[in-house]
Structure formats: structure tokens, C-alpha cells
Design a protein that fits this description.
Elements (H helix, E strand, L loop, with lengths): L2 H36 L26 H4 L13 E6 L5 E9 L2 H6 L11 E11 L2 E2 L8 E6 L5 E8 L7 E2 L4 E8 L2 H4 L7 E3 L10
Parallel strand pairs: 2-3
Antiparallel strand pairs: 1-2, 1-9, 3-8, 4-7, 5-6, 5-8
Length: 209
Amino acid sequence: MNREEWNHMDKGLNMLIKYKRYIVLFVLGFFCIAFAVQTMPVSAQDYGMQMFPDDSVSESIEEEGAKDALPEDRNFGGGFEHDLLIKTEDGRHYTFTVELALTPPQQQKGLMFRKEMPEMHGMLFVFGSEHIRSFWMKDTLIPLDIIFVEKTGRIQHIHSMAKPLDESLITSGEPSYAVLEINGGMAGKLELDAGDYIFHEAFRNTNLE
């Protein structure tokens, strides 16, 4: 092998090493971005989905909530016009009037900046799939009970008395399909617990009431 051939081979090896470095950096960057998105909140209340940096609407939402939020036409009636029924394992029934948060902007804002909420009212965040959900209480002025719900309507976990303005993460622990936020202390007052069921059109279980 003469000197010229050796120089060509050496240049080719250097270029290969250079491109390999870029490929590795690209792959690492992609996984870092994917991990960051999965661990962001949805609204100031749902930290797991805080995918929009605009502080004016940054409340509490889920980690992939923006990607799998339901379209606006799936609003089940919308507004504070929908009733939601909770049945406890020992047979007690409670009806809440809920506002629905289905789109990323709705889920991002959640119950931020509200100074009060009627006793048997709440907000139901409905996502398009089941994922680990993370919420926080940024810009949320009232204490809340945050109820994580499976796709069947079964209550999976209740985080009681989330503190106003607290930016600590509140996670579902297990994949959840929806989150119900009610006034802080209400879950304890009604003795709600994991294993109780929520009946609403969002869970396609109203025929099982």
C-alpha cells in the first residue's frame, strides 16, 4: 500500500469515527428528550403533563397527556353540566358535577387561579390512554384531593389535601386513564378509597351503574 492509498484510508477512518460520534450523540439526545417529555406534568395541577411552557396556562396535567388527550368533539357535554357517580365498595353513592378537561390547553390550566369550588363539584381530566400521571399545584389556590382512575373507572390511588401552590410532584404510581380533582378533604369526608368505582361516559361504564 503506497502513501497516497494510506492517506485515503486514514481519511476515511477519521470520517467514519466522526460520523459515529454524531450518530451516538443524536441517539442519546433523542432518548434524553423522550425521557424529559414523559416526566413532565399536564397542568399546574398535573405536572406529569406540563408540556407547554407558557406560565399563563401552566397548571397541573400528565406526562404524555398532550399527546393522548381526547379531541374537543369528545366533550361528553362539556362544562359544569355533567354528573359523575362514585360508588364505594360498601354500596354508598355520591354524585359530583364535573367540568371536563380533555384538550391539552384545558388540562394544562386545570383548576388554576380559582379561589373556590362548590362542595360536590370537581374537574375530570380524561386522557386517551393509560400512562403514569404526574400533577403539581402550581398556581392552584385551593387544596385538592387528586384521584387517579383506571380506564375501567376504578379508583387506583387518592392523594389527599394537595397543598395550594406546592410544586412538588404528585404521581399516580401506576398507569392511569383519568384524574378527578375535588375539594381537599372531600375524599376523606366521604370515606372514598382505592377500589371504589367512578361511573361516567368517559369510562364507557354508565350502563353498569
